[in-house]
Design goal:
The structure is a homodimer of 386-residue chains. The first copy, chain A, is α+β, with helices and mostly antiparallel strands. Chain A has helices at residues 22-40, 45-52, 56-68, 133-150, 187-195, 204-215, 275-278, 281-286, 291-312, 321-329, 331-341, 361-376; strands spanning 43-44, 72-75, 89-92, 96-103, 107-114, 119-126, 155-163, 166-167, 173-177, 182-186, 199-203, 224-230, 233-240, 243-244, 316-320, 352-354, 384-385. In chain A, strands 4, 5, 6, 7, 11 and 17 form a 6-stranded mixed β-sheet that branches. The first copy, chain A, is globular, with a radius of gyration of 22 Å.
DNA sequence: GTTAAAATGTTCCCGCAGAAAACATATACC
DNA sequence: GGTATATGTTTTCTGCGGGAACATTTTAAC
């Protein structure tokens, strides 16, 4: 609501924007508060009053409603040393969780992620062959049951799945996950039926960036380009003005298939010179002890970053997986070449960083997607006992 | 407010979202209605009632307020043939205008654009040397004065300027417009002082896409990549999920400096193989009668489009200027190569189109930027007699 | 220790927003 | 000309946040 005008989204022209009612106001304010404690951790009611600009009494009513919904807990203040009556501390109730599933070639993993972003429990199963959607769903059900017995009192908002492959914009259909062998699968339906929960499915790189944005290295940054090097190739994602780049069909951010060498080799996708054919895990392993070859790969990475910078002008370029490793060992070279290639006048602002969340990244990101509905309408989403 | 959850923007984490009040509701609804008639032309109150989901009586009150503000006009219905009392027709008041300025190398142009998107009047001055910011502002003042005398009763919301060059995200500073020789100029201040109006400054390609999105070939499309070929190079812009791509500093969408040939020539920007060094107006003119060379340039264009598609997954790729002309004469080749290179599984959805608004594009786009504040808060923006 | 000052929580009342119902009006159809 | 239908208008009602007054809890001053 309070965005700057320059980038404010004008409502779509073909469809008239929905009218707003008083209860939308209430929903918006409940959402603002729950979102604030979700990302910002424990906050006092006084801080919430200042930050939202709402009245003390209004904040009181809103927080009370959130507490009655079982979403936040109010604690007496710790010693602050400040004059005046101490403000109550509002923190998210960690018994509110989302399930996060990550099916991959060699393992399936499920986690229960609390509303404050902490991973409360996880289950992992190694597999010999890539799991089918049904395998993944069955494992999710079993693992969720175990976690529910281990930690009593959990209330689940839904489940998110991070799938290595193309996922349609509907958040349901895995269009093509070549390494898993999934093609045109409505994985949302499969998983929702197994868990009897609302499910949202997304691409793994997108989920990863979402996690780093919420709780990791891209926290609070508005415009981010993410490149993640994994065994299955290079995953890409972008955050544009505080929103995930999705694209018309959901396939946006496939930077691994950006053409980076016009004379490059044929890629599995049918094109030539794709970033991930020039710079991939095998090639990196093969030249690990060849300084000149490493330099060449680092230079390729810098070319890709420079290209993405002139398209997106990000505040931050985030590197994960083997791309993060490569950056770590060739940071001066990459930085220098990016700066040299940078089209932008104020190159001193170019920021490149490695991911921060490690093995929890995909679980946290998938859970974030599942939490989105609750954060947007705290009073309108039903929680289910696990 | 009624977006799908998949791409819903989660409020920034570091800053707590502002609280919402009842008057925000009113503002939102006024904005929805004015925006609807701005883009959708005359609409009946009955249609507005259905589309917004608001109550008849509420719509009545809102429309009355907009009419009292002098922003819309209510007309008796034309013959519809339908049973029942005819609904009043709501249309934007065309006396509400924005000024639009386009300073370029060889000319300066100013237009008065009505709130329905029509260009009511324009003034153009050819110049021998690129104008200074002060030249442009002085011309704007003089031309505005003339138009004000020619068409009495106009009420101005503000002015927008489309500048061929890098404009900072603040909507004020021209960071570098090489062809004009402007560098680090606060053109907003210069122009605002001359016109005594609120001013917003933007990049010409961004303004162009905004215009085509509002009233042209990209109307109603949510995700668009725009490439415009002009004498000063290739301008780029993108619309991502209904929002203009801006980037952290405002330099997003510079697709002309995307590296398209890894072995290409040096570009003026310091990099090599930039799209606009491989494919530019001079080169296109030079090979206009050489079919093979034209094919090669068309193929380069297709490569660029394919790259942008894998990054943005747009619903539409929009081509303007000489790139539109090139596409017109080599459409089968470009289409085929884009489809061949397309990474996306459902390539049948790739849409490429030429721009539709012609010489009015930049004026309309700049005016749109100026109208944005009014559309967002119809009751909160003061109009000034021209 | 007592009192004052400061900050916050709580309660009650007000104004404003849109919803809903009742009523008024304008058209088409028979 | 009467009726059905759709829409504009007026009135009443509910819900939300603001704000003032009061209550509570702390620190600081004496």
């Amino acid at each position: 609501m309070s965005e700057d005008l320059a980038s404010a989204a004008v409502p779509a022209h073909t469809t008239v924007a929905r009218g707003s009612r008083n209860d939308n106001t209430r929903r918006h304010n409940l959402s603002s508060l729950l979102t604030a404690v979700h990302y910002g951790g424990p906050l006092t009611r006084a801080q919430l009053t200042r930050d939202t600009g709402l009245n003390r009494s209004t904040i009181g009513g809103l927080v009370t409603e959130l507490a009655q919904l079982g979403l936040v807990i109010e604690d007496s203040a710790a010693e602050t040393g400040a004059v005046g009556r101490p403000s109550l501390i509002v923190r998210p109730d960690r018994r509110v969780v989302a399930l996060a599933l990550h099916p991959d070639v060699d393992a399936i993993e499920l986690g229960a992620v609390a509303i404050d972003g902490t991973v409360l429990a996880r289950r992992r199963a190694s597999v010999d062959a890539p799991p089918t959607p049904q395998d993944a769903a069955a494992f999710a059900w079993e693992a969720a049951r175990e976690i529910g017995q281990e930690i009593p009192g959990l209330r689940v908002v839904g489940a998110g799945a991070a799938v290595p492959g193309l996922v349609a914009a509907d958040g349901a259909t895995v269009v093509d996950a070549p390494h898993l062998g999934w093609r045109g699968v409505d994985f949302r339906e499969v998983l929702a039926e197994a868990l009897t929960l609302p499910v949202v499915v997304g691409n793994d790189a997108n989920m990863g960036l979402r996690a780093e944005w919420s709780f990791g290295a891209a926290r609070g940054v508005d415009t981010v380009v993410f490149l993640n090097g994994s065994a299955s190739g290079i995953g890409g994602a972008a955050l544009v003005g505080g929103r995930m780049l999705r694209g018309g069909r959901g396939y946006g951010g496939e930077f691994g298939h950006m053409m980076i060498r016009s004379d490059g080799e044929r890629c599995s996708c049918g094109r030539s010179g794709c970033l991930e054919t020039v710079l991939n895990a095998e090639r990196l392993d093969a030249v690990a002890h060849d300084d000149a070859a490493l330099d060449a790969l680092a230079s390729t990475l810098a070319d890709a970053i420079a290209n993405l910078e002139c398209a997106f002008d990000p505040d931050l370029v985030l590197l994960g997986g083997y791309l993060g490793s490569l950056y770590a060992v060739r940071r001066p070279l990459v930085d220098a070449r990016v700066e040299e290639l940078a089209f932008r006048p104020d190159v001193e602002d170019v920021a490149i960083a490695r991911t921060a969340l490690g093995g929890n990244r995909l679980l946290i990101g998938a859970a974030e997607r599942a939490f989105a509905a609750l954060l947007q309408d705290p009073a309108g989403v039903a929680l289910v006992a696990l």
